[in-house]
Design goal:
two-stranded antiparallel ribbon, membrane, 396 residues, mainly alpha, EC 3.4.21.105
Length: 396
């Protein structure tokens, strides 16, 4: 082999797998492999025969579903070779697009026994399986999630946001002495969390308005949707991704109001909620045959009816005679901003379970579109109000 040859791709991949094992001692142990035995030419590939021998000798160390995935990977390569890096990625819980395509090509082994057919599961296992079928369209992803999920960390983002919204609502209800249609109270808009067009220079208001709701009828539906849709999505995709979609919807909602309904204030978390729900519904429609959740047509209809009722309530309230003229009631445009984020950024996030978003061209296209909109809205807020000589309601 020479005195000191430079390490080939297989050696580097093996070293990376060993480094990951050292950093995560409690994680599942990768299959041991000696690159000089399996890839003597340092080509970066190993034969499918060698690969199957590895599986047979170390199958007791693998989750049964992960073994199925590996067999599907072997079946997908008609040329008799498997990329060693794909193998290491699998054992390190890192899956590339090429790996996903290989698995889909060898998917016939995975259809031998669906996760839904497994018996004797505990309550927590049935809950995890239920969440997998609610959110993921591919059996390979459902099995992967079922084996990998540890509830650590729990879905803290959606739970924390929901608890804060309820806490702020109760505090305002006690201080104002009003829980239904709080927005009609003369002191409601004086709260420093509400977005108000006269105070749009206070940048925190573009985000903190989610903690103020028009009334219990407004808060109730948002909380229900956040818990029924947001929590399962966070369990599958993680707090970072779901939090990103939620916050992007919130900011897009307030900015959309500042551009399209310039004289109105904004309250409520509907921008973030509608971003998550619309992304989830769009993902179901785009993967209709693969989604195996029960009564999906009926449940989609119920979700759309609830969203329509909430949107109708917001439109009615916006044009209802204001309790504090000349300032109108809060705008409904934030709902539309959330939907726009959900069917763009949100869909890309939900369609790429365990995939690197930065590898998706659509992700960068929608990020660029969102960035352009945010920059446009910022310049609009700086210059348009003055150029249009718009008469704004007085500050609260």
């Amino acid at each position: 082999m020479g005195e000191h040859p430079s390490p080939g791709p297989a050696v580097a991949a093996c070293a990376e797998a060993e480094r990951i094992e050292e950093l995560e001692p409690e994680a599942e142990e990768p299959l041991p492999a000696a690159p000089e035995d399996f890839d003597p030419g340092n080509t970066g590939y190993i034969s499918t025969g060698t690969f199957r021998s590895l599986l047979e000798s170390h199958s007791s160390k693998l989750d049964p579903h992960k073994r199925e995935v590996l067999l599907a990977l072997a079946d997908s390569h008609a040329d008799g070779q498997i990329c060693y890096q794909d193998f290491v990625n699998l054992m390190s819980n890192k899956r590339s697009n090429s790996f996903r395509q290989a698995i889909l090509q060898g998917n016939r082994r995975l259809s031998s026994k669906a996760l839904l057919e497994e018996k004797g599961l505990s309550l927590s296992q049935r809950l995890i399986r239920h969440v997998a079928y609610e959110t993921l369209p591919r059996e390979i992803d459902r099995k992967w999630y079922y084996d990998s999920y540890t509830c650590c960390p729990p879905p803290w983002f959606m739970l924390t946001v929901t608890l804060l919204e309820v806490a702020f609502f109760l505090y305002n209800g006690v201080s104002l002495g009003q829980f239904v249609l709080q927005v009609t109270h003369p002191r409601y808009l004086k709260n420093s969390l509400v977005y108000h067009p006269q105070l749009r220079a206070q940048a925190w208001r573009y985000l903190t308005y989610i903690f103020m709701h028009a009334g219990i009828e407004h808060l109730g539906l948002n909380v229900v949707l956040q818990l029924l849709v947001g929590v399962p999505l966070e369990m599958v995709h993680g707090a970072t991704r779901i939090g990103l979609v939620y916050v992007a919807g919130v900011v897009a909602g307030s900015l959309a109001v500042s551009v399209a309904d310039m004289t109105a204030p904004v309250v409520g978390s509907s921008g973030g909620v509608y971003a998550l729900v619309s992304a989830h519904l769009a993902n179901i429609v785009m993967n209709w045959s693969g989604m195996k959740c029960q009564f999906k047509l009926l449940r989609m209809a119920v979700a759309l009816i609830c969203m329509s009722m909430e949107f109708g309530r917001a439109v009615w309230l916006r044009f209802h005679p204001s309790a504090y003229p000349p300032c109108p009631h809060p705008s409904f445009v934030a709902h539309l901003g959330g939907v726009a984020v959900g069917i763009t950024l949100g869909v890309v996030v939900l369609r790429n379970y365990e995939q690197r978003l930065q590898d998706q061209s659509l992700w960068w296209i929608f990020v660029a579109m969102y960035t352009v909109f945010v920059l446009f809205a910022i310049f609009w807020n700086i210059f348009a109000y003055t150029l249009l000589d718009l008469k704004l309601p007085p500050p609260p």
